[in-house]
Amino acid sequence: MTAWRGICREFRDILPPIPDASVVTLLEGNTPLVAAPRLAARIAPGFSLHLKVEGQNPTGSFKDRGMTVAVSRAVAAGARAVICASTGNTSASAAAYAGRAGLRCAVVIPDGQIALGKLAQAMVHGARVVAVRGNFDRALELVRLLAEDGIAVVVNSINPDRIEGQKTIAWEIASALGRVPDLHALPVGNAGNITAAWKGWTERAAREGGERPRMLGFQAEGAAPIVRGERVSDPKTIATAIKIGNPASWQGALDARDQSGGLIEAVSDDEILEAYKLLATLEGVFVEPASAAGVAGLMKLGARGALPKGAVAVCTVTGHGLKDPERAVAVSGRFETVDAEPEALRRAILEPGEPGEPAKRKAAGA
Fold it and tell me: Are residues 177 and 241 in the same domain?
């Protein structure tokens, strides 16, 4: 079996040119496509669902697909530094790949709006992290201005190299599934991911023939500018990774929706958290809240009978649950403390209740 070589080398023939000596890789890509039959049964009768688990990338999110291409191309161009605005995952990925390449990395984050797990990653990889008093959209505006001064290469998804790397997910899904899915569902924040996935499906169909899936994008209700048709000046959602009021790839998302005959809708924070918990308890897949937005959307469509009968769907779950450990603790059941005695432990373990829920009564000695 040939060893996996990372996105830049495995997909060299569909990516922009990168000299082999400039490739910066952590062997990203080749993430699992996991069947989710128990969750599918909750969504709709006869529904088939697979999860593309992008949290298995090296820094724990889908961002690594595009970052390897963007940083490798920056190295090839002689760059000395990279910069990004981020709600978290981009910063972690940029810092890791910059560190791997020996480049300086600057990260601009919205103050108080980044999950601890992501901030820790960016800092431990050696990035210069600066928080600004404003939201993500303002942070990105500032980064664009600095880029115009030639200070550093921007590695947000406004950089087309990021989109090029992220499009490879289409080839991986089709290969693992053995076909093109009927539906491809994703969370939508800055909208680069749905833009890139659709680009991948379109280019794959042009090269190899075959169908393209309908693209289903889901935004959080409090951060749904594409759904509303207008910029959201003060986005609000617990799903920080998609807490964006003016997506950089807005038009790309509209093209993906319209050209595929798909949709972009909103889901509430409660719906996101329900899907977040079901992914973990029913399928053993632990994601950060924003990653569950696609599943929440499929559940919402299923509840109103809006999914094609017998459809085969893939949902990209974009980031690992340990990106936001505080949220996991907040929504999970409390653990019990009991006396170190067999009977007390037996009662605690055998107490009726759903997995992850606190016991209905205290065990003896608790």
Answer: yes
